[in-house]
Amino acid sequence: MAHLIFQIHLQEFPILWGFVYLVLVEDDEGLPYRVLVDTGSGFGECNQQLEWGLQVVSEMAGEKIDLESLTHVLITHGHIDHFGGLTYIRPRTPARVGVHELDLRNLTNYEERLAVVSHRLNVYLVEAGVDPEQRVRLVDLYKLTKSLHNSVRVDFTYEKVGMQVGPFEMLHVPGHCPGHVVIRLHDILLSGDHVLDGISPHQSPEQLSLSTGLEHYINSLDKLEAWAIGISLTLGGHHGPIQDLPARIEEIRSLHRQRLAETLTLLEEPLTVACVSKALFGDVNGYNELLALEEAGAHVEYLYQRGLLGILDVEKFEISSDPAPLQYYRLVGEGDRNI
Asked: Angle at which helices 214-227 and 287-305 pack, to 10 degrees?
């Protein structure tokens, strides 16, 4: 069963470029599938770049491929740089849109989801020890890049259809996002943001959203490694292709082991997550400030869940139920077990 996969490069935000994929394939009965995997952000010229990309694909494939001719739009996960273009695409295509159950509300109840996560983020930043002025700025920045999107209709969810759409197989890999899936077509893996070349996919604490967090992510790497035997090429949502998937998975595991060890060493003295973030990632600006704080928090949370860390002055919780900065410290006598 022959197939063609086209990579379309999009500027998803001013400092973020990524890929969507157009797949042309027939199933065992000769039924054609014209599938767009992810949509870009919909921000700036992203939608126009997608349209231009489809025109180029049409010329290369020798057949007209546009939004109206798509049969499916498969979303790898519920982050706006991967599904935000649906606001533009949905009214222009008869394609059936699919997403995993755990990211369904990100698409269909977007406004509520944004409000809930913004509230949780504010509490998290208080506990991380971020000062009030910076906290307001970061929450506003978080909402700014997402304010142009709105809720869209979804036609099906992956578990409901048995984690398979025609020749496309899905595996649920929570961690980077609750409903993240990777998509397999024969010996090709479309990995979304779960595994990327040259960069470790961003992690955030499960405190912000259930089924995220470093534990879920590492467990999903293990699950993918066992499921993806025979994969010859992995295509991610950002950066270049990966030809040795097991080696790349081990590189990512190794990076997190190293970062966890660094975090434990830093917490020989009590520190807030904000202090850990600065020690791990230095002085960063703009949206990278928020990413660094979440990444540091994911590693602190992982260690705390395993009983390697304590929280200083927990008596303050008896005085007030309001969120307050937390200082974590390495528990005396605890080694590097369970890392």
From this structure: 80
